[in-house]
Amino acid sequence: MSTSSSGVMMHSANGKQQKVEQKVGGPTKMPNSAGTAGPGTAAGIGDKHESWQMELLMERLRSKAKSSHYKSFPEMSKTVRMSLLEKRYALDVVEKSNLQKTLDSMQYCIKVTSRQGLVERLDCLTRQLGLKLSEDTSGLFISSDMFYLEIILDQNGKVQDVKVHHECKMKQQSCSELVSCLQRGDFVDFTTQLEGLASIYQLNAEKKIKLNAFVALQALETDLYNLYSLSTQHFNDIHSLLLKSPLGVVQKRRGGHAMKLSYFVTPYDLLDLEARMMKPLNVDLILSEKIGCSVAVNLEASTANKLQIQPLLVQQGNSPVYSPIEKHNSTSLPATFVLKLNKPMALNVKMFKQIKIITGESSSGIIDFENSSSLIRLIVEYASTGAANNIAKGLFVTLPDQQHCYYMNENKNLEVLYNLHAYKIIN
Fold this sequence. Notes:
One of its GO terms (biological process) is positive regulation of transcription by RNA polymerase II. Belongs to the Mediator complex subunit 1 family. Keywords: Activator, Nucleus, Transcription, Transcription regulation. Residues 100-363 form the Mediator complex subunit Med1 domain. Residues 1-42 are annotated as: Disordered. The structure is a single chain. This protein is of the alpha+beta class. The protein folds into three domains: 92-199, no CATH class; 203-343, no CATH class; 344-420, no CATH class. The chain is 36% helix and 25% strand. It is built from eleven helices and 21 strands. It has helices spanning 42-68, 73-85, 93-108, 115-129, 176-183, 187-199, 207-234, 238-243, 283-288, 349-359, 375-383; strands spanning 5-11, 17-23, 132-135, 139-143, 147-153, 159-166, 173-174, 249-251, 260-264, 271-272, 277-278, 293-308, 313-316, 319-322, 330-341, 347-348, 373-374, 395-398, 403-406, 415-417, 422-425. Strands 3-4-5-6-7 form a five-stranded antiparallel sheet, with helices on one face. Strands 8-9-12-15-21 form a five-stranded antiparallel sheet. The chain has a three-stranded antiparallel sheet with strand order 16-20-17. A hairpin with a 5-residue loop joins strand 5 (147-153) and strand 6 (159-166). The radius of gyration is 35 Å and the shape is extended. Residues 1-37 and 419-427 have low confidence and may be disordered.
């Protein structure tokens, strides 16, 4: 030991050496008999000990990562599938299903940035929809027994075009709506469109009969849009077109999205809260922002009906004339045309009966009259989306400088039906 200072080497628990410098003549703090430091340094030594152990653990993890090279998710997914194919373990159906659900959930959390990533994602969603995915050098194919999609990719795996081919059509049709949703990575919208295309053929019939399902729906859509074009000549004002014309504002079929008829827009839909002003009502606003009340034109399974397979509307001057349904322009299908509301509606029983007279007796039996309720109560439930179910307590509305409370008085004579999603239209 020198006269100025001395160095004491201490071994810590992790094998590293700690040097404690001590001044001569000063008080020396040595560990007590129990092997612990004094009260002033116990916390500091304990913190350093934990940090050393954490650093040692991280070094081991880093060295292991460098040596093993962690695999990417596609490689891990392939390894799991190969392990399932090997008959080392007897997995029951429940375990295999749970494992597949886990892999699918992980797949939806991964951003698609490559061709292989796109294939993995499409394989996941097509399997859930009961469709088939196949791949070749030019692109991908999503198919069912009635239609298929051809997804054309470039060398970098970017989507260039999507073509839809129905068994009833000779030529493929490019679909910009499907291209757009794939290019922006909106697989939720892509799934919705696939479901819309598949729903057209959900009929209890043979394939040769189901071939006419899309033909019939397309013929009706052609007549509806021609009628809408005539209406725009008579109703130049957007308010008159929306409220007084036979169809309102019509939007053509877009890929798997059905034709849409918008018939009402509330003033609340036109409020711009950020700019504190009303948006001008026009056709582009209704179609682009998806505002207002609307119905979608669909085809659903039912008993056999005579449905058109050719357009029936003929324009004579400025008025529409409809050809009668005959053998050459119609066919028998176990289906019916349906208008499906985009949101539930409180409907008066008397109004429903008037609609039933127009649509025919085939729509009977889909409504339970015993579960009818008062009109006021259902309007409150509809407007509040189910949040206000007890109108006796009053409905509170909070404004920036005021607070209002409204009470609704029920009338037993106002009986209505709620949640009427569709009206059936029989040609």
